[in-house]
Structure to design on (466 residues):
């Protein structure tokens, strides 16, 4: 009977432990805090549940545009947090029950490698365990990165983990960082009733996205009340009279911001600093991520899955990592993670769904492409529901007529993007989608209209900044 140690109960570790145990392996799963990883406890589940509350408040406030007049809207952050944490607990306990049913031994404690496939566990109850197995799987995830900012800890700054437990609404939330996580929190707290200012060191938000897409999203957020300070470097922070004071430098100008709370959202770092990963024969890169080959092998008998290996930090990527390893070990089927698509959705309103190439990527692709763009203001369903902000975009290879990438900034943009991703996976061409019979009036029906629009032709040599 093969023996396995899984370090970390995230979105790859939990299903892998269950599958290996179900195949007759003896499996020990070590988790120092909560089963479910970032997604269930601090990421997808709680944030999207809170965003739903913020969306309800926004719909109520803006319902007059649809002829429905609400006298007043009041948000209760404590009640929202109670609901959210109830969902988190339900999901976490469900995962724990699944592990128990599968026969996985779950240890609550801190793991540290003491040799190849050998782990020392400092149990949370004070005990110690020394384990050795045929295979070891590292799924310890990542955590929010703290900036090197004088005073940041002294002022009680929050990360995306701590802010989920606030029970009193910030009067003015300062957010350091202008990335994907930042924008979700910015819109959410504005809709709940806070004033929000985002401070970003770069000259533009979301540099991986097309400039016109980012500009459209920024316009929506600014219209709702989110303030942006771009090209601004935080210098120091302190408390004065109960307020958080943030000093920034924007070009040659020094500015001082004052708020009730400071959220730092400047990236994430792998949780490897106490693991002694090198004892397994694996190597860490300069960011602390575990190096792996295309099949997620880090050393002999050692695999790294999910955020700890670096690269795209998405739940669906972690879960697919589990499938790659499971299929290799239990089904004799090897697949490289380099071959998979990497879709993602930013859960602002409108949502930003993306898979494959953006327009700016196609500009330097080296071969001719066509770029189809359709404003959401031309989508019947969006007009009917008063959700016309954003656009749909598809990058198409000129020679084969196949889709190379899709961006959807719009209502339920992630769902529409996913439909087009399935078309990409199925090898459907732009011509196929142009002539497809799709139900009316749905958002996906607009796929017809997208490919009926006049495309922009790129020769693959354009300046990607345009």
């Amino acid at each position: 009977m093969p023996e396995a140690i899984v370090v970390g109960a995230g979105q790859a570790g939990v299903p892998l432990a269950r599958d290996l145990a179900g195949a007759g392996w003896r499996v020990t799963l070590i988790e120092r805090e909560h089963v479910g990883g970032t997604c269930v406890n601090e990421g997808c589940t709680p944030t999207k549940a809170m965003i739903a509350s913020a969306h309800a408040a926004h719909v109520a406030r803006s319902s007059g545009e649809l002829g429905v007049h609400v006298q007043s809207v009041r948000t209760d952050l404590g009640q929202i947090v109670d609901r959210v944490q109830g969902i988190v607990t339900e999901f976490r306990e469900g995962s724990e029950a699944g592990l128990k049913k599968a026969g996985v031994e779950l240890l609550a404690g801190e793991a540290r490698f003491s040799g190849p496939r050998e782990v020392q566990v400092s149990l949370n109850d004070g005990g110690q365990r020394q384990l050795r197995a045929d295979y070891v799987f590292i799924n310890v995830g990542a955590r929010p990165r703290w900036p090197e900012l004088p005073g940041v800890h002294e002022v009680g700054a929050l990360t995306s983990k701590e802010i989920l437990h606030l029970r009193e609404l910030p009067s003015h939330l300062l957010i350091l960082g202008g990335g994907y996580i930042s924008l979700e929190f910015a819109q959410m707290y504005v809709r709940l009733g806070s004033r929000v200012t985002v401070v970003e060191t770069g000259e533009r938000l979301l540099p991986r996205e097309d400039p016109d897409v980012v500009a459209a999203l920024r316009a929506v957020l600014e219209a709702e009340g989110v303030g942006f300070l771009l090209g601004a470097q935080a210098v120091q922070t302190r408390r004065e009279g109960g307020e958080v004071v943030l000093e920034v430098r924007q070009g040659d100008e020094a500015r001082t911001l004052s708020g009730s709370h400071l959220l730092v959202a400047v990236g994430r770092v792998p949780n490897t600093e106490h693991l002694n990963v090198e004892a397994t024969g694996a190597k860490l890169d300069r960011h602390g991520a575990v190096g792996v080959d295309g099949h997620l092998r880090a050393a002999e008998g050692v695999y790294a899955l999910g955020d700890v290996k670096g690269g795209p930090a998405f739940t669906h990527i972690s879960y697919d990592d589990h499938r790659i390893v499971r299929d290799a070990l239990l089904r004799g089927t090897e697949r490289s993670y380099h071959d998979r698509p990497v879709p993602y959705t930013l859960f602002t309103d409108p949502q930003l769904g993306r898979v494959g190439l953006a327009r700016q990527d196609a500009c330097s692709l080296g071969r001719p492409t066509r770029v189809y763009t359709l404003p959401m203001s031309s989508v019947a369903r969006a007009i009917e529901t008063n959700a016309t902000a954003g656009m749909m975009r598809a990058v198409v290879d000129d020679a084969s007529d196949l889709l190379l990438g899709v961006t959807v900034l719009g209502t339920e943009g992630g769902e529409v993007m996913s439909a087009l991703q399935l078309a990409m996976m199925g090898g459907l061409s732009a011509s196929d989608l142009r002539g497809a019979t799709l139900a009316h009036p749905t958002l996906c029906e607009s796929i017809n209209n997208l490919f009926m629009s006049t495309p922009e032709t790129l020769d693959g040599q354009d300046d990607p900044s345009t």
In short: The longest strand covers residues 105-115.
